[in-house]
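Quick review question:
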């Protein structure tokens, strides 16, 4: 080890212009400094390695009226992983930039007549996304994907202005694809693969579709669940198609996406009018920016599991319970470690 140490620091032992001798001679100053240099290197390596074991979960807290509770101190939160309580390292709430994947359904069902006879669903989706941008930060980035039988990348990550241009009337959504079937989960998988290379930690899918899937395989659906958990992608789905009940009212059409969005910490929305659609897009933006980020340290056992279950609870005082009632918590329910994470 001494020989290796001498080789690494040989440049410190010779004066300018002098020939290096066969045997290195250290000055007193060099001998005092070199061990500290090694210590700094070791400390930096330890900090870098340790930082790789920190995981995050984003939590939105709502009261019974749906209002976001974004003024909690943080001491109320309790975190459990696979049933075991974990120490919370840090809790913060910052409206950070987001990498968005916008997915728009262009199958034949998106060109039928919905609640608004003036606009078919695909055009409502376009206007809804533009409305959503009004509530976002300039730093956010967006990619755009259309899908029916197959997903098609329309725009790689770019600004909101570029997204508005891509959504123009003469853009790729102007005409129906003519395809009746849909590969919804293939589109989600493609979006997450792009989000995996995005620049921001917070990653969100905005899905505009009736969420019916006729063509994706069972393997594709399972893969979507896995990728969403690995890359911690939130999912918000907006469907505008409605069905009339026999009693004359509107009915909610259930979908597997209800479960997907819930486990990803988001929600599926089903607006019944253009005004309600605009409110939904504003609410999704508020939802994303009102999340508490809870950080915790992974344990060795976490690396041995393909999938871990997360539970977040609030421990409130009697005064808080009277004021807040029984808050609702929305967060991703599972996480999976990346295959290349050690």
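Suggested answer, residue by residue:
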């Amino acid at each position: 080890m001494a020989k290796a140490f001498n080789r690494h620091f040989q440049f410190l032992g010779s004066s300018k212009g002098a020939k290096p001798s066969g045997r290195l001679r250290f000055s007193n100053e060099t001998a005092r400094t070199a061990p500290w240099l090694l210590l700094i290197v070791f400390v930096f390596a330890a900090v870098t390695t340790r930082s790789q074991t920190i995981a995050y979960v984003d939590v939105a807290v709502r009261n019974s009226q749906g209002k976001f509770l974004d003024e909690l101190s943080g001491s109320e939160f309790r975190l459990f992983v696979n049933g075991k309580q974990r120490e919370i390292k840090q809790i913060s709430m910052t409206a950070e930039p987001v990498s968005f994947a916008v997915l728009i359904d262009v199958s034949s069902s998106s060109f039928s007549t919905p609640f608004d006879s003036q606009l078919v669903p695909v055009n409502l989706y376009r206007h809804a996304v533009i409305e959503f941008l009004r509530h976002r930060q300039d730093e956010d980035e967006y990619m755009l994907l259309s899908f029916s039988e197959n997903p098609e990348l329309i725009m790689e990550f770019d600004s909101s202005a570029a997204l508005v241009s891509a959504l123009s009337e003469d853009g790729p959504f102007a005409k129906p694809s003519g395809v009746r079937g849909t590969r919804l989960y293939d589109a989600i998988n493609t979006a997450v693969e792009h989000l995996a290379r995005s620049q921001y930690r917070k990653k969100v899918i905005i899905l505009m579709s009736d969420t019916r899937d006729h063509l994706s395989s069972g393997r594709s659906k399972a893969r979507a669940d896995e990728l969403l958990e690995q890359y911690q992608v939130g999912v918000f789905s907006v469907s505008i198609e409605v069905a009339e009940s026999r009693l004359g009212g509107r009915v909610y059409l259930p979908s597997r996406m209800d479960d997907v969005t819930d486990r990803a910490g988001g929600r599926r929305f089903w607006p019944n009018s253009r005004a309600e659609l605009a409110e939904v897009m504003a609410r999704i933006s508020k939802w994303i920016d009102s999340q508490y980020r809870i950080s915790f340290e992974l344990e060795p056992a976490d690396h041995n599991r393909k999938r871990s279950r997360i539970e977040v609870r609030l421990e409130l005082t009697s005064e808080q319970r009277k004021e807040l009632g029984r808050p609702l918590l929305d967060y991703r329910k599972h996480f999976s470690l990346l295959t290349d994470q050690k």
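Why it works: The mean pLDDT is 80. The longest strand covers residues 54-62.
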